[in-house]
Every structure is written in C-alpha cells, then in structure tokens.
Hints:
Elements: H1 2-17, E1 21-25, E2 31-33, E3 38-44, E4 48-53, E5 56-60, E6 66-70, E7 75-82, E8 86-94, E9 99-103, E10 106-107, E11 113-115, H2 116-120, E12 124-128, E13 140-149, E14 155-160, E15 176-185, E16 193-195, E17 198-203
Amino acid sequence: MRFIILLVVLILSSCASKTTVDCYNRQSKKELTKGFPNILIVVSNKKVINVTIDKGSIEKTENNNYSVIPQDDYISKITVHLRNKSEEFDFKIKKLAPSVLTFGGEVFEETDSISARRFRVTRPGIIVSPDFVCNDFSLDITNMKIIRIDKNNAITSELVTENYSELVRLAEFGDTYIFTDVEYKFPSISTIFHCPTTLIKIKN
Length: 204
C-alpha cells in the first residue's frame, strides 16, 4: 500500500513539473505577415528567457507579448528559450494584402466618380483588403501627392503630409484627381507602406 501511494506521488510530481509552452499569432495562429509587425503570444508554465526568429526581428512589447517582423518568404522558425530547454515553432509566411485608398469609407474603382460637394468635405483614408485582419490598428496617411486636372486640362499638384488638402477643396464638376505616392503606417510602427495610385472623377 505504501508503495502504491509513493508511486502516485511520483506520478503527480512528474506531471506537475512537466514543461508546457506554446507560441502563436493572436490574429491568425500559425501564420505571420512578411515585413509587418505581428503580435506574438508566448505561453509557458516556466520562465521564458528569450524568444528568437531565424530570419527577421523580434522584440518584447509592454504587455509581455512579442512584436515579430519576419523577412522569410515561406516559413519562419520561432524559438522559445526557457531555462532548461528550447521549443521551436514553424509559422507560414504570407504577404501583406494590398491596400486601397478610400473616400468616406468607400472604395472607388478607376471608373467611379464622386460629387464635388461630397469630395470637398471627405478626407481620404486607407484600408487593407479583408483577408488581412488588422482590427487592432488604425492606418495613418503620412505622405501623398495629389494632382488635379480641371475641366480645362490645367494641371496643379500638391504634396500632403497631414491628410488635408487645399486642392481637394477646389473640386468642381469635370475635374479629375490623381492620388499618387501614397505612404501610410500603423501607429507606433516605423515601417512605411505604400498604396497604389488612385484616380477619381468629379461629377455634379
């Protein structure tokens, strides 16, 4: 009987001391986006000494998660280093989805048009296509060039750095606006991303 009790104690002790560790992306579990700061969560019943990536950069965030920017095209290997062991995790790499310039929350195709009155009071914004989840971030336009071609084919342009334009306020029926060299970023992230050129026609 004493032997059985001792055996049970040993088994329970062994289970209690077993190391468990997991590593995953908060948004897409075992996928990471190339060149983009992904939030990585590491969970373990032992003290985590360090977390490394084979190709890319990684740093600890204020809430004890990790921000990882992979640079591999296919698979990135994340290694969680504990005091007495290390655990490796493979993450599939995907590219950042294309971004789109919007006006009043609407996406405009090249053949679309918008009324002059609405256009003059609508500030452009940025969205990323729906297959890329970025609910925790808002996108800030940091730079863009706006070209106005009026109904007489006179061309004027303006560089915008604060998402505000004098040219937009001059919009009239028959104008064409081109938004090009659009740069944007996520708050607290220094990486600059680019949005494709967008052409908007002004209607009555």
